[in-house]
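Lecture 7 notes: from sequence to structure.

We start with a single chain of 336 residues. Read the sequence below before looking at the structure.
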Amino acid sequence: MGTTLKDIADHLNLSVSTVSRGLNGKGRMSKEVREKIRDTAEKLNYQPNEIARELKMQRSFTIGVIIPDVSNEFYSRLLKSIDQELWNIGYSIIICDTDEKTEREQHYFELLKAKKVSGMIISPVGKSDIYDQSSEEELKTCVFLDNEPGIQGGKYAFIGIDNCKAAKELTEQLLDAGHTEIAIVVGDLTETTCSERLAGYREALKERAITPKEEWVFVGNCRFESGYEAMKKLAAMENRPTAVLAHNNVEAYGVMVAAKECGIRIPEEISLVCFDDFTRRELMEPELTCIQQPIEAMGKAAVKCILRNMVQEKEGSSEKLYMPYRLRLGNSIKKR
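Now the structure, written as tokens:
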């Protein structure tokens, strides 16, 4: 990796934004400081990011990020990636946590517009009409991550994975191990990640001529409680399924805790798979078979996309980028 604005800032004991203004000839500062910044950049062989250099300077050096739940490891890692990329080009970040509530998402969207941020990276709570009345100029500087917003016309930039395909592959891991009675725990089905993962689960079963029992489909809120409560209900069933697919690692953890409380061993008595991984997966017993999303790469791609759109003279990119994922095999599936 080449020299960044942060490298120059650290070398001179200045802020990244001061270095950025010095290189771009903007803002008030002494001639001596500006020359020192430029001399240091040349000495460190700094190559400016052409996209960032061409940004419309009347905008703020701030990007707003709206996410559903900052306590969820998926989103905290995503934020870390986005923040680092923005820091490297002299941009600041405003983080808005919607707590999975549409009304808060609406509020933060309007608040960030009022603050005239340069752009927004948004992971919507679910499909809504929040963005339907937005102008083309506003949407041009928005990138949606993980969940799609459901904007009429579908012209917006989106970055995620093929959730339907991934869920199908994950379900097939259970089917190939001999499981035909499989439960699933998902979140609000207005979220595209939830509805698509449920569709992938159903598609995998349908291809094996298996009709899932509706009482084995649990719709929750993508949090620990969803997995915990679902497993408690499953444990009380006379004929419970032999495997569970959890929408994310947080719900999977809820399943594991409830199973332990009920004296049900994983995977000996019930197998478990999920989306997303734990950072310290070696601390988990058993290690879960899961779909690993390219979280850091998604964050970097979102920043790259929004910067490119910000310098477009006409329409920004409305590309939908589906990034590669990885099926990580653990020891949470027992063959039947």
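The chain has a mean pLDDT of 88. Keep this in mind for problem set 3.
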